[in-house]
Batch of 2 targets.
Target 1
Amino acid sequence: MESNVVQLAVHEQLLAWFESHRRQVLWAAALITAGAIGVGFFVWRNSEIESDASAALSKLSARVGDPSVDAAAYLNVATIYPHTSAAARALLIGGAMLFIDGKYPQARAQFDRYLREYRDTPLASQALLGVAACLEMQGNTNDAVSAYRDIVEHHPSEPIVPQAKLALARLYEAQNKWEQARDLYQALARPGPYESISTLAAMKLKELIQKHPELAQTGSATTPGVPALKFSNP
């Protein structure tokens, strides 16, 4: 149940990211939520070092908003207590804080480190999303597209897939790949467990078709089960 709550929080905050266009701040906040709230999220060996690591991370988390608690403080926990659940969460939080500060190469380094050291843990998909977002914010659009597509194609059961699809659709739209963007928006607009994402995808689809009405005539052929949507101009 706790993991579901954490993932729901991530979804809602990532939705706000897209709605407000303040991608870097809100996306990173989502990662911080995923890392900070999930104390005890993983099943790790019950040891004194794990207890000490969790205590160290909890002390930092209790000081959220304190300007003296920076990314380095969290990354220090990851270094002092390697291979613990607290170290894994600290890497994600540290990477997110670097992302907030616009230090995208450094942030990506932490997400990459997470994937090297904790790839088989439940929050690894958050690190994959972090890498993709860093590439996007650095202007590496083609690499970002590849990273988001990798999440969609090779991790289909992960709860972050709708966010990856939404980001991918947005990048396709920016690249004038309107049919690909339309297909993703249509798929996301179908009713699902994350109603807010479906609503946003439907809004983005409406905007796209208003700009390119010809897309409304072919959508059902490329996205089985999703009828072509037609919108009248306001």
Target 2
Amino acid sequence: MIAQGIHLSLLLGRSVPVPAPPLLAESLKSAEVTCSDDARTGFQLTFEVGRSGPADLLDYPALLNPLLQPFTRIILVVSLNALPAVLLDGIVTDQALTPGERPGSSTLTVTGSDITVMMGLEERSVEHPAQDETIIATMIILSYAQYGLVPLVIPPLSFDPPIPIERIPAQQATDLDFLNAMAARFGYVFYIVAGPAPGMNTAYWGPPIRVGIPQRALTVNMGPESNVNSINFQYNALAPTIVEGQVQDRRSNAVIPVETFLSTRLPLSTGPAILVNQPNVRRQQFREGGVSVIQAFARAQGITDASVDQVVTASGELDALRYGAVLTPRGLVGLRGVGYSYDGLYYVKSVTHSLARHDYKQRFTLTREGVGSTLPAVIP
């Protein structure tokens, strides 16, 4: 138990994680898990270790424990007010031992990443004949079914299946790098979400999720209703990018103009910077060749869509006990109490969970494309 109403469960194992032995679970000093929509979920667990008695003359028992060795699978489940949530399903990749001079001051820190670390170990040279990006992403994810991966692949707005007599998509990279490269063409993201049950994972390949029911609101400067310890905002007027240029269609050889005007993301603000800052918006030339008109427009739009995601950035920290829930990234959350310009809905880009005895903090990063709330009031 971390604090009243908060419990942390630790499961470890080479193939099938099982609950940690009591002595190992009690030696867990702190845990930190960082979840983001554009990077691996990383974790760091710190254990109190020591040596006592003749049996420990050779080495620290924790260093010899097979459950803390590299490539061990670790699952963390936090229960807040009796509601469990899987924070992490990952693989240990590093160890760090810090001996202490006083008894009980030595620590062993294990660090790792989510299941994507297993997708980035081997570079492959593979052809994917007659398969578009949607099919390729699905097949790659299914090849890691032993880690409980379930694919959730969203097809791009443009559909341009490769005809084998014209082109054959080829992979000259790791599965992880190839998935990320394909996602970047459309302004998409690829990440793995642990859960909903321990041992299960959802592999998402698609646009940032800006629809659905918002999470419990973040509240600032509202007395006893406040649950945010600190928050700050940044407005980057140079982020929005319009793409313009031309492309020579691979099939007809005709030269076609390519230009984007707006983002296709669902708007979260009433004053998107790409509109408000006209005509002072960055313009980027489209210089990619060897693609069809459909591919050209899709990739140009992907650049514009990705650029508006970083206009307004809110960073802060909340107290999990006062918030009463686990804030999860890759979805929506409401923010209230900071005024019309920065109140409203945001996309949760990343969350860092810091757990220690009697303490649970959540540091977050929120983004959207401009200022001004689209809601008359944010639901608590």
